[in-house]
């Protein structure tokens, strides 16, 4: 049986003054969780914005849940999507969470008030607070509850765990697993967190410099993932561009933490370049 596609991007290009997205060709399978992984500024959030018609491509076509995006009547399409953006809007700061929820739910005929309340309870959210008075984590959890409450066919999550403590993170993973239980829903999640990819994703798409580098099955790929700590500081950006398979690099107290999707090649590279590996996970 032919696999269904939830998102299709064909020859998509978007030009910004200092950044070119694309050409992007991408097919995200329906019924699975696909992780979008790439360094800062690689174009993940820009891709989400194109999928939601919040930005227009100069070239190419974007198709979501079988509908061409930007083709006119997007209201029906948007009702089938849940979106958690990377950043919150500061102009909503003086709005009470419950007032925002009351506004948002009008757009979604499938809004499930019981499920929404269950999520508020689970995440211990006080919806009587103004959004600007919430902690970063609480606001993130609230926005996640809003994105989920109409049980969307397609859930677009842009770095959902940013600001969450480990307990909230585990709850979020549980909620997303339950969301996928029916088997016909799709999640596209931009993330930097290896454990999130490990626990959630079926497929992984790598992006860099506005291009898709490849799409892989998680199980096939993770066997070759690892986290290396190499001695030396001040060069994480350079190492990101140079170490084989590097997905993320950051300073970690006198050493650099490197997440790589090609563990063996990365280790060999470190040896040959004289970078001492002080720990590996
Ligand atoms: N509204 C905009 N106008 C012009 N350039 C933009 C705009 N939004 C993003 N960019 C640029 O587009 C590039 C890609 O940014 P984007 O936010 O899509 O990356 P990202 O992969 O989501 O990064 P991060 O991991 O930091 O969230 C960056 O160089 C950014 O500066």
TrEMBL record:
Keywords: ATP-binding, Nucleotide-binding, Transport
Highest taxon above the source species: Bacteria
Listed CDD domains: ABC_DR_subfamily_A
Name the record gives this protein: ABC transporter
InterPro entries xrefs: AAA+_ATPase, ABC_transporter-like_ATP-bd, ABC_transporter-like_CS, ABC_Transporter_VariousFunc, P-loop_NTPase
Pfam family for this entry, one: ABC_tran
Organism lineage: Bacteria, Bacillati, Bacillota, Bacilli, Bacillales
Segments forming domain ABC transporter: 2-234
Source species of the chain: Paenibacillus cisolokensis
